[in-house]
Amino acid sequence: NAGVTQTPKFRVLKTGQSMTLLCAQDMNHEYMYWYRQDPGMGLRLIHYSVGEGTTAKGEVPDGYNVSRLKKQNFLLGLESAAPSQTSVYFCASDNMGDGVYYTEAFFGQGTRLTVV
Amino acid sequence: AQKITQTQPGMFVQEKEAVTLDCTYDTSDQSYGLFWYKQPSSGEMIFLIYQGSYDEQNATEGRYSLNFQKARKSANLVISASQLGDSAMYFCAMRDSQAEYGNKLVFGAGTILRVKS
Predict the structure, then answer these.
(1) pLDDT tens digits along B34-80
(2) Residue B25, CB-side half-sphere exposure with 13 Å CA sphere
(3) Which B residues 12-51 touch A at CB under 8 Å?
(4) Which 3-state string (H, E, C) describes A4-63?
(5) What's the angle, vertex CA B71, arms to CA B65 and CA B74, rounded to 5?
(6) Chain A residue numbers touching B106 (CB-CB < 8 A)
(7) Please, which residues bridge with residue A56 across strands?
(8) Which of A87, A40, A33, A96 has its CA nearest to residue B91?
(9) How far apart are CA B26 and CA B4, in angstroms?
């Protein structure tokens, strides 16, 4: 059982380049999330999805786009990378629970992105 | 809007002693869930413990317990008998239904815990 898998694990981009981060989960989870982690700021939510074909903005969506064409995959795109997007990116997934009990989220191993 | 506050950027604790990591949250929803995650230096996110807003008893998982004070909107993590392997970053997180679209999981800034031998 792979859980949540992110690719790639590391990447170096030049300013202005584009790239896509892939997140895949095999737990049939409805919810998927993309976070970025920066020192002193915790995990900040970029975008999330509540089901196949849906996406929504999180706290820091600018400069990123996402797509959820298949339930198991959640893609994060950087159209024109900037040095401010240097960060560690985490994907996570969970189920919505029943509104009273919420389920834990499962995380990928992270992608370390450097924009030079 | 959801907000999670962890006021302790870093903490030290002596091995075998107990330590409390603070977390306060802000929500107007009655139904929400609170989580604690551990992130060791290797980087992975490890789920530790969950507390539901309707749970009357504090959650416990082995050496971890959650001191839930609903009226104060606090959900502090207590680690008993600290071990060297507890040295890590600890994140408090919350899900509620206040999001504009569905509900979402948001995190605090984290607390770095260092266990001294």
Answers:
(1) 999 999 999 999 999 999 999 989 999 999 999 999 999 999 999 99
(2) 31
(3) 31-33, 35, 43-45, 47, 50
(4) EEEECCEEEECCCCCEEEEEEECCCCCEEEEEEEECCCEEEEEEEECCCCCCEECCCCCC
(5) 40
(6) 45, 59
(7) A48
(8) A40
(9) 7
- What are the tens digits of pLDDT across the range A20-78? 999 999 999 999 999 999 988 889 999 999 899 999 999 899 999 999 999 999 999 99
Chain B contact for A91 (CB, 8 A cutoff): no
Nearest of A34, A27, A71, A65 to residue A51 by alpha carbon: A71
For residue A105, what is the DSSP state?
P
Rounded-to-integer distance, Cα B87 and Cα B78, Å: 14
